[in-house]
Amino acid sequence: MMENPDSDPSTLTITTVGNYIVEKTVSNGCSNHTELISVERYGETQTNPIIEYFNQVNGDSNPDNNIQGEIVTCSIDGNSMPNIFLCGTSDSAFIQLGITDAQSITWQKLDESSCNEAICGEVSDDCANTDSNWTWTQEAVSNNFTITESGKFRVVIAYEGGCFSRFYFNAYQNTLDIPEPDSSDIICDTDGSIRVIDLGPGYGYQLFDVANNTITIPFTAGQGPNFDITTSGTYKVQITQLDSINWGSNSQ
Predict the structure, then answer these.
(1) Which of 78, 163, 202, 230 is in the most buried spot, having the most CB atoms within 10 Å?
(2) Does CATH number 2.40.50 belong to domain 49-174?
């Protein structure tokens, strides 16, 4: 965003990072000049660190540290917004930033009742809620943060001299309480089994081989909550609400 409150064409207030072209036009016969100015955030962190951590843990070879979620794009400014999914009432997502040049890192949650739509606009899911009339509640001051509930969040990275950067993310929680599955081991010629109990209708199930990082039985197979295990190993049962996004997982 660009602002020119004093109407002086030689000055301009910049509130958004990016590359800007300044065209200097003279009327005394001298050559015009064009200058390219790059505006960056203060500090080493130039892009949303939540997205970087999300891609890092979901892109490594260890499926146990994966974070459920998605990256969406704001239709207004084109910025990316990370959405974190918590799968069940006891699920959590650990975020570790590893930022070393900040003076402090503060995690805040939006009070969605603190401002009305006429003043702040509608609470957005895909775009950052940046209106200054919103109230944000401090959750923690730490390099790391554990998400345990749904909400609109932001992390404020402060530096010496008063400079700071804000990055936004959302969390969504499915309140389904996924119980520990019943399971039995393979004994001689008797297959093992995994059975998810007490969920009722409306859910789909998928069997995932953790060691081989492969899907053994996909959601599309339409299999119920019972799985026969013929090969020893470590398995995860992934659970989805039918006609919905993939929310949950449980493992043997």
Answers:
(1) 163
(2) no
